[in-house]
Amino acid sequence: MQNLINTQCQGVVVAPLIFYNDQTSLSNDGKMTRYPLVMCIANIACENWYLNEGHVLLAILPIISSIEASHEKRLQVFHECLDVVLEPLKEASFKGLTLIDPHGDEH
């Protein structure tokens, strides 16, 4: 993909992203739980994966535990939350985004 993009736009870099979330307990008794949504850059070296570099907490997603809420309703709320949180990334993916390389090169 990077080679294809380079033929059309010099200096453009593909930034693969990974999103993950998992129910996390916020209290010692386990009664308060949430779903943090974390994003990381996919091309981080394996030895740096567990460091904080490249990992960003994007949002704390709600947990819908209502008995009346169907599985479909919970999925709908989850996807609506993702749409809101990821809107800036979607916009940047179409318009492009200029970032400053910490090593001095502009990309």
Characterise this structure.
It is a single chain. This protein has 107 residues and is α+β, with helices and mostly antiparallel strands. It has one domain. Helix content is 30%, strand content 21%. It is built from two helices and four strands, in the order αββββα.
Shape call: extended
| Structure summary, number of beta strands | 4
Mean pLDDT: 78
Please count the helical segments.
2
Largest sheet: 4 strands, antiparallel
Measured between the Cα atoms of the first and last residue, the distance is: 17 Å
User: What is the helix fraction of residues, given as a range?
Assistant: 25-40%
Using only C-alpha atoms, the radius of gyration works out to: 18 Å
Return the structural class: alpha+beta
Order of helices and strands: HEEEEH
Uncertain regions spanning at least 5 consecutive residues: none
Number of domains: 1
Classify the beta-strand content into a percent band: 15-25%
Outline of the structure:
1% of the residues are buried.
